[in-house]
# Entry
Amino acid sequence: MEWMDNTFWTLVALVIFLAGVVYLKVPGTITKSLDERGERISRELEEARKLREEAQTLLASYQRKQREAQAEADEIVEAAKAEAGRMIEETREELSVQLDRRTKLAEEKIKAAEAQAMAEVQSIAADAAVGAARVVIASKTDAAADAKIVDADIAKLGSQIG
# Structure
């Protein structure tokens, strides 16, 4: 019995093993397990795709919000610059008006002081002239003539000053 050597028994063991595997439905179980694993992987891939789409949507949203915020910040800066420029111009105009007003006020005060000084000088000159005229006339004329001349000169000076 040469045909019953180790090779024959190995073949018999293999056939029994394969029959046991088929009887216990191992190929179906393996197929079912592989199918379930494939479905689970497909679900995970789908979930990953959805998460990626959500992440891309969120990224786009945040980028849009960032652009909007940057544009708003730029507008605020431009408005602030314009407001500062306007305020500077207003301040310059107000300062110019105030300077003109103070200059006019100072000029008016100077003119008033000049007029007062001129009036005082004229008054002092008139008093001196009257005094000198009295002395000169007193030495040349009598008291009655002196009174007439003084009264006439005083009346004349009063009309010239006033």
Summary: The mean pLDDT is 87. Residues 24-161 form one domain. Residues 13 and 19 are 10 Å apart (CA to CA). The two ends are 172 Å apart (CA to CA).
